[in-house]
Design a protein that fits this description.
- The chain is an all-beta fold and about 475 residues long.
- Helix content is about 0%, strand content about 40%.
- It is built from two helices and 32 strands.
- It has helices at about 5, 15-20, and strands at about 55, 85, 85-90, 95-105, 110-120, 125-130, 155, 160-165, 170-175, 185-195, 200-205, 230, 235, 240-250, 255-265, 270-275, 300-305, 305-310, 315-325, 330-340, 345-350, 375, 380, 390-395, 400-410, 415-420, 450, 450-455, 460-465, 465-470, 475, 480-485.
- The longest helix is centred in the N-terminal third of the chain and has 6 residues, at about 15-20.
């Protein structure tokens, strides 16, 4: 993990620092995990009971090695190596995709990765699609705007991803390796076409640590570009525009730290516009009155946030590590909504000071007084009804205890209520695996951070890997795949 990543993270165990955060390793189908047996490579997982976790595939052991197999060929023995802080997409056929992160390569070394994987839920198989089997691979940029089978983004962690209206995958920034083989913060924007298995370098610099070029607020321009950064957050709107907020990175003055700038990218015109927030680092939050939008409101600078977009096109973000109302830095639990039509932020829920405690309430019961505790490095989903789902991260639990979390929450935007759905109200809960493909109220992923998430067309939540606790209370990177059906 780079200096930029580690400077704004809660101190972790030595083993986490050695592996460098987030783990993705799936010991697939023929590998027997704790309490689980083998499973046919072509047999889909059975239907699962709603609102209960099931361990689908992967290992119950920590820090599993990868099995790449033949590039482009699915196999029951293939599996991504253990990793954290990767990015994810889901395609129109329901396949789950992931790219990069920090983890274990084919030589058993830990570092930044640039391998692209596809998981078929029906066959329960992984395929290594592109990228290197060896960590810390340099980017091959080619000619800007030109697709080539030789192109590949460099190894990285902490990037952001989008899916456009045509089903193409987009990737921006992170901490990683540039075209010169140098490691640092990245500002490159890439597009991936799954049909041709080709990457296109679209925008941004091919070398590390580029400063932001902000231009005039609200005005798109071909010269505008967000600075290099890691730990940002992203959205895609109904018009196909890509939105980017915050992270740790370089501002307009080529100085690096926490950011709160909001950017909009138009894929048709290929232009960035700086929309909101500050062009310099470490901006303090301006909260205003809870529930009231204002053009002067803005979330404080932060990274490792989670985000949603609702059916009306409003952008939401929650928590992360950042700067509160009075300029203090720490973990946050504030929930914000941005209205693109009025260019206004509103502070919706949570507290305006860092390191706040949690109010769980009664499991399964929504209440206006419930709210998750301050946290960073969680994961999120949006269901078909427009409700937001939040899982885990590292932060505060019951009675102010802190550590890796495995609590699952549902937020209703219409009622403005949080509901604690499952998981523990205490930090550092152990994983409970049971048998593969078996759902039960007692089965649950352990406390973890920097996992990877998808939601499929049947409204099932999928969770993969992350850094956290196994069944015995040991900590490290996971490659377990979990499913939580909502119907």
């Amino acid at each position: 993990m780079s200096l930029f990543d580690m400077s704004h993270r809660r101190p972790l165990a030595t083993s986490h620092l050695e592996v460098s955060s987030l783990v993705l390793v799936l010991s697939i189908l023929l590998v027997t995990g704790c309490g689980g047996g083998s499973k046919s490579a072509t047999e889909p997982p059975p239907p699962l009971k709603a609102l209960e976790w099931a361990w689908i595939s992967g290992s119950s052991s920590l820090n599993a090695a990868p099995f790449y197999g033949t590039q482009g060929v699915s196999s029951a023995t293939n599996a991504p190596g253990a990793r954290t802080n990767a990015v994810s997409w889901i395609d129109s056929a329901g396949n789950l995709w992931l790219f990069g992160g920090i983890g274990i390569d084919s030589a058993g070394n830990s570092g930044d990765l640039n391998d692209l994987w596809k998981y078929n839920p029906n066959a329960n198989t992984w395929a290594w699609i592109s990228g290197s089997k060896i960590s810390n691979a340099s980017g091959i940029y080619g000619t800007q705007g030109t697709s080539s089978s030789d192109n590949i983004p460099g190894a990285r962690t902490g990037a952001v991803s989008w899916t456009d209206m045509d089903g193409n995958f987009w990737l921006f920034g992170g901490t990683g390796v540039d075209s010169q083989g140098d490691s640092g913060l990245l500002s490159d924007l890439w597009e991936y076409h799954s049909g041709s298995n080709t990457w296109v370098w679209i925008d941004g610099s091919s070398v590390r640590d580029a400063a932001g070029i902000y231009g005039t607020k609200g005005s798109p321009a071909t010269n505008n570009a967000p600075g290099a950064r890691t730990g940002a957050v992203s959205w895609t709107d109904s018009a196909g525009n890509l939105w980017l907020f915050g992270g740790t990175g370089f501002d307009s003055q080529n100085s690096s730290d926490l950011l709160n700038d909001l950017w909009k990218y138009n894929p048709t015109n290929k232009t960035w516009a700086w929309i909101s927030g500050s062009s310099v680092r470490d901006a303090v939050g301006v909260y205003g009155t809870k529930g009231n939008p204002s053009s002067s409101n803005v979330p404080g600078a932060r990274n490792l946030v989670v985000a949603w977009i609702d059916s009306t096109g409003d952008l939401w973000l929650f928590g992360g590590y950042g700067i509160d109302l009075v300029g203090t830095t720490g973990d946050l639990n504030d929930l914000w909504k941005y209205n693109p039509s009025t260019n206004s932020w509103s502070w919706v829920s949570g507290l305006n000071l860092v390191n706040s405690n949690v109010a769980y309430g009664t499991k399964g019961t929504p209440s206006a007084s419930n709210f998750p505790g301050a946290r960073q490095e969680a994961v999120t989903w949006v269901d078909a009804d427009g409700n937001f789902w939040l899982f885990g991260g590292v932060g505060n639990a019951l009675a102010g205890s802190s550590g890796d979390l495995n609590d699952l929450w549902e937020y209703s935007p219409t009622a403005n209520t949080w509901t604690w759905i499952s998981g523990s109200n205490e930090a550092d809960a152990r994983s409970v695996y049971g048998s593969k493909d078996t759902n039960s109220p007692t089965i649950t992923p352990g406390g973890r951070q920097d996992a990877i998430a998808w939601i499929d067309s049947s409204d099932a939540l999928w969770l993969f890997g992350g850094y956290g606790l196994d069944a015995f209370g040991n900590t490290g990177n996971h490659n377990d795949l979990w499913k939580f059906p909502l119907k």
